[in-house]
Design goal:
By secondary structure, the protein is an alpha+beta fold.
């Protein structure tokens, strides 16, 4: 939606008002869309020529239901923030080459406009690479289909795809820059590039592409303090990530910015994210309030990463993997982050502590708005999930190939692929999968006999096959492509090399694509499964409520899988924790009947789903403990 259209809509809505109200509405529209200047002073940012200190917090639009965007903005204002930071996620906006999506929860322009309506400024981070604990760091899966394409490089194929996408992003967001009447103060070029490489020509090419696309306002780079040397580009402001010692921050920026400021901590971490099988990360506010106080007192601008994390829904979580001697670490669906706002958007003690610090630095006579009350919650009674269908009972048409194919070769982005072949039975041997990406449920004649887990370095298992011709199924789950580190260009999923049994390579594979892009029709999930069936299953249940409110599904008695509510993918669960609940936002509940579908990989006989009125984010089980339950 253009500014012109937005203004027209607002003016039309004012026709029903009296003349005084109409005049007031017109004045507000003109004021909110007035063009401003935002420039670099020697020590301060200058908004319309006057010193301006950004007190910013990171919010990611896809991690928050669109219906709740405005609420989170109001909460940001109540803590004392004047600016919102957000990435822009390439894989959401171009899921397939040339097919763009800026609608619904992907409507980044609407997100930015709501910030403006709420009196907030915006720092925009549209670099194709975002990291963000997000699938492939924001890159679309299809870049991996060409094994020779190199992301974050001057590779012409990468630059061409990147350039086309950036122009589409600019169509949405360039008109919302502050110099065009929007709230966007600055736009970030690349993202912590110094962590990855130090090619200044590549960074200069990025800057050129941003300008040619239409981002004609203030551009900047950001890097962790020790990597600013490698990641900054002469001529652009080098923002600093992670450091909060005012003296060190100012010295560093001056070193790489001609002896001048202004000074911006682009990512300040008052907490951290979680990954499966490790404790929930928490940091007391008292550790960070003195640091925030000193930064604000020094006149340094700051962006809290995260102010509010929300939830990484669907299959959008990323993973870390730093080298051959480290674990593959897929991230959980909750992005609570121990942030000032919790996963559901409520103020935490950290919120109140930071608010008190910010209040100290307000101009004389200024006051913060009151903190909105906590959102109500409900506890849904146990749901009967008796309708069930084996995942193997309703498979799509297979794709046949002699060797197993990766997700990318099958033109599949996320979810699962079932690999099937036939093997001569009546013998023992080692089933070995080279480069399993990432989690495999191994079935013989339709029954689970083993699981293999990249996170634990498992890629083989001893099997005893029954006599006769055996159907071997391997259901492979993509647990999230790497979002950080040197292996970004090695991110293909599925069975990426070969499978062997008893030393012989297995061939003649059928591939059943199961992306689970949506689960809206429930006709597939009906009936019963056999009492002894231990293969993956889809289960369905329904419940009725009189008034929607936030709630949580308790998945602690389930094994591993995904949950859908009224067609919305709420994310993953896994008994190993630390996350044992799935957040259910009020905005996606309906008065009356609601439908829930669960894909369960390990405990197909589980048929009750309990509700809770608060989350469980800090219970970790070892893989052995989880298996016993």
């Amino acid at each position: 939606m253009t500014h012109k259209y937005l203004i027209g809509a607002l003016l039309l809505s004012s026709l029903a008002l009296n003349p005084a109200a109409q005049a007031q509405t017109k004045a507000k529209v003109r004021a909110s869309t007035a063009k401003h200047t935002f420039t670099l002073g020697d020590e301060n940012f200058l908004l319309d020529g006057k010193p301006f200190q950004m007190i910013s917090g990171e919010l990611h639009y896809p991690r928050i239901p669109r219906e709740a965007w405005r609420h989170r903005m109001k909460m940001a204002k109540a803590m004392g923030l004047n600016t919102i930071g957000t990435y822009v996620f390439w894989n959401l906006h171009e899921p397939e080459p040339g097919k763009y999506n800026f609608t619904g929860n992907n409507d980044i322009a609407a997100f930015v406009k709501i910030a403006q309506e709420e009196g907030m400024w915006v720092v925009l981070r549209p670099s194709p690479y975002v990291c963000a604990e997000w699938e492939f760091g924001g890159y679309p899966y299809w870049l991996q289909k060409d094994k020779s394409l190199v992301v974050r490089s001057k590779d012409p194929k990468y630059i061409a795809a990147y350039g086309r996408y950036l122009k589409e992003v600019a169509k949405q967001l360039a008109p919302l820059q502050v110099n065009h009447g929007g709230p966007v103060l600055m736009v970030q070029v690349e993202n912590e590039y110094g962590f990855y490489a130090s090619d200044k020509d590549y960074l200069a090419l990025n800057r050129k592409m941003f300008k040619e696309a239409g981002f004609d306002g203030l551009l900047y780079t950001c890097d962790p303090g020790e990597k600013v040397k490698e990641g900054h580009l002469p001529g652009l402001l080098p923002a600093v990530n992670g450091w909060d010692d005012p003296r060190k921050v100012k010295q560093l920026v001056r070193t790489y910015h001609g002896g001048k400021g202004p000074f911006y901590i682009a990512e300040w971490y008052p907490a951290w994210f979680d990954w499966w099988g490790t404790p929930h990360h928490t940091v007391p506010a008292s550790k960070y309030t003195p640091r925030l106080d000193s930064v604000l007192a020094a006149g340094i601008s700051i962006n809290m990463y995260m102010f509010h994390g929300g939830t990484t829904r669907g299959f959008m979580n990323g993973a870390n993997y730093k080298g051959e001697n480290t674990k593959f670490e897929p991230q959980i669906s909750s992005y609570d982050y121990d942030a000032p706002l919790d996963e559901a958007g409520n103020a935490t003690p950290k919120f109140m502590a930071f608010r008190r610090v910010i209040e100290k630095h307000l101009p004389k006579g200024a006051k913060l708005p009151p903190v909105p009350p906590a959102k109500p919650t409900i506890r849904i009674p146990a749901i009967n999930m008796s309708s069930a269908t084996s995942l193997l009972a309703d498979l799509p048409k297979p794709i046949v190939n002699a060797k197993p194919q990766s997700f990318e070769a099958l033109n599949q982005d996320y979810g699962f692929v079932l690999y099937r072949t036939e093997v001569a039975g009546g013998r023992k041997g080692t089933l070995s999968i080279k480069d399993l990406r990432d989690y495999g449920v191994v079935m013989v004649n339709g029954q689970r006999v083993a699981t293999l887990n990249r996170r634990l370095g498992q890629d083989q298992v001893e099997l005893t096959l029954p006599k006769g011709t055996v159907t071997l199924d391997i259901l492979v789950e993509n647990l999230g492509r790497l979002n950080f580190g040197p292996f970004l260009n090695q991110n293909r999923k599925g069975i990426t090399e070969r499978v062997s049994f008893a030393g012989t390579e297995l061939t003649n594979w059928q591939h059943f694509r199961l992306p689970f892009a949506s689960v809206t029709a429930t006709s597939r999930v009906a009936g019963k499964i056999a009492p002894n069936d231990n293969s993956p299953v889809l289960r369905r249940g329904s419940f009725t409520i009189t008034k929607p409110a936030d709630t949580y599904f308790d998945m602690s008695q389930w094994g591993k899988g995904c949950v859908w509510l009224n067609g919305h993918n709420l994310g993953r669960y896994w008994e190993i924790g630390p996350q044992q609940t799935v957040y259910v936002p009020a905005e996606w509940l309906k008065k009356g009947t609601n439908e829930v579908v669960v894909l369960e990989l390990l405990k197909p006989q589980q048929d009750k789903l309990a509700g809770l009125d608060k989350p469980i984010l800090d219970v970790v089980k070892t893989d052995g403990e989880a298996r016993k339950n």
